[in-house]
């Protein structure tokens, strides 16, 4: 398995992602966006950070970078793609997944641990969990509020495309457990074909025992 971690100017979680994937015996290489994707890539990760300084909107400029044409071609060839935090913003801005991520209700940057409830365990990204499992994974974002129109939200529910929802430690999905005001407490979702997953919390930061917690390892195992 060879995963290309796409580094844009402003990416800052690419090395975290590489270290986490390496701990799972996944061959991961950081690639500069201007160089495009390697021909033999079998997975793509869009990491967190502040691509292009979050100018215009978070992820908006990176979503229109030439490398994203390579990413779309890879998806057409069956290559799985995971977007985390800024990568999730890029994924939505590029139309790989529906909806958008915008400014937190608090209007401030939030860096803290949150709880997520696994909503659908029947995907490669959640196959190591059980539906209803509660994970503790950190967030670090200022524009993490997921928004979509009612029709899109209903479609996501009907097609079981919500991967995670913000919840409390007991798995209750409540407004109080929602750190950024995301619609329906959505923290992560997949494309219709299940190949592209985007999520705001950072699974790579909850994957190594020596930095506290491994609840996020299952998401990264989705590549395997």
Automatic annotation (TrEMBL):
Source organism: Halospeciosus flavus
Active site residues per record: 85 (nucleophile), 202, 204
UniProt xrefs under Gene3D superfamilies: 3.40.50.880
Localisation: Cytoplasm
Lineage: Archaea, Methanobacteriati, Methanobacteriota, Stenosarchaea group, Halobacteria
Cited Pfam families: GATase_5
UniProt superkingdom: Archaea
Record's keyword terms, sorted: ATP-binding, Cytoplasm, Glutamine amidotransferase, Hydrolase, Ligase, Nucleotide-binding, Purine biosynthesis
Swiss-Prot/TrEMBL GO biological process terms: 'de novo' IMP biosynthetic process
PANTHER family reported for this sequence: PHOSPHORIBOSYLFORMYLGLYCINAMIDINE SYNTHASE SUBUNIT PURQ
Catalytic reactions of this protein: N(2)-formyl-N(1)-(5-phospho-beta-D-ribosyl)glycinamide + L-glutamine + ATP + H2O = 2-formamido-N(1)-(5-O-phospho-beta-D-ribosyl)acetamidine + L-glutamate + ADP + phosphate + H(+); L-glutamine + H2O = L-glutamate + NH4(+)
Enzyme Commission identifier(s): 6.3.5.3, 3.5.1.2
NCBIfam families named among the record's database cross-references: FGAM_synth_I (TIGR01737), PRK03619.1 (NF002957)
Protein name: Phosphoribosylformylglycinamidine synthase subunit PurQ
